[in-house]
Amino acid sequence: MKEEKHCCCHAQQEKKENTEELHRCTCAGQEILVMGKSMRADLSFDEVATLLSTAEQVWDMPHAGRLTPAARALWNLHKEVIDATLAGGWDNPVHPWDRDLQDFWRYPLAFCCYGMLSMAMIEPGLKPELCEYARKTVLLMKDAPIWDEWVRYGFCDNPITKDNIMYKGHLHFVYGVYRLLSGSTEFDEEYRFLTDIILREYESNSQNPETPYYGIQCEPDQYFPQCNSVAMISMKIHDLIFGTDYNEKYSVPIYDFIRTHMSDRDTGLFFSKYHPSHDQAEPYVTGFTNGWALTMLHPYNPALLEDGYRVFMKYYLKPMMGGHAAYLRDYASYDEASTGVEESTGQFYTLALCKEFNDPARWELFARYFRAVYGTEIRDGTARLTLARPEDESYIHNYLLWGEVHQPWAQVYAYDWKAFRGGKTE
User: Fold this and answer.
1) What's the pTM value of the predicted model, to 2 decimals?
2) What three-state secondary structure class fits 6?
3) Cα-flanking dihedrals φ and ψ of residue 38, to 5°?
4) Distance CA 16, CA 322 (A)
5) How far apart are CA 284 and CA 116, in angstroms?
6) Suppose 391 and one of 98, 150, 161, 282 were both cysteines; which one would form an S-S bond, judging by CB atoms 3.0 to 4.6 Å apart?
7) Segment 306-315 mean pLDDT
8) How many domains does the chain have?
């Protein structure tokens, strides 16, 4: 039996069930089909990995006013990857990207860009290069290989006009990061155009005469809470820039809808997806969905989701390395899941998740896993993932950097960005 035949995202395609091309999920989370070759839950380790940065050092960065050596080394690697990609394309010989993961490249790029806001808060002197690489991220996020699966799979010839929040939510956020950091109006026309598209779609969906809902689908009839979370916070970033009230007007009602339609009643943990056509959620609580969604939706219901986080870690964290490291299961009882495996790309989100919920002890557990699996070393001031293929290094380092530097969203919102742009922060 071919697993592609059961792909969630293309179940409604007209009886075109025999090609892998038509049955590859384009939503985030399915990267494990490829990344699972190296990042797995069944690995064993001969020794306990040593951390490049302790949690104490990572949490102290805002007080120290500078990045840890490990964070700076990852940042130096990130600049290399971005520059090599812009200069030589996605297949460049220095830092190539895995073509098997092309439909997912936007996710690590975008999340790493969100980490630039935290880096600015930690070390304001990095402003010139943060602005430079936020701008370069915008350019890459607009490049055709980032979004062309929307055309290849026959959804639409334009990736932003309808649905596809899994792309346009990230694009909107990345525009906002660059604008908030730099004050530059270079992309303002595009930014306003995309904002208007999203807001009109919010309004239209909430007034749907058959099944009104709040938020935007990824593929047709496939609504994912984690993908909507990105556009929700991007509206708060827009508010910080322009003084609008889109977070209260749109994002808060979207969270309320997610809470009532696709969340566990007691814990607030999120279900895997929702189908507007039937007003029905699929009540699976997965490591991937919640690793991402808890990180991004925490500001919308802090008390409930902090309780949910504790429950999530109790049942989904798998101890490794004799209890010195950890892996995030996709299912609490993975052997009962339809997949029959416990691998989860939720692992990529664990470092930022622990930063968001102020959990340094568990951060170290997950960080130790990544160090052991990918062999991260600092060489001449730049991070190298010595046990990873070049294609994996280009992809994975984004999550490692974001997870090292992320500051809780409440602190991002409260930061004096006007002073930062004016060079008045210490």
Assistant:
1) 0.91
2) helix
3) -120, -35
4) 47
5) 32
6) 98
7) 97
8) 1
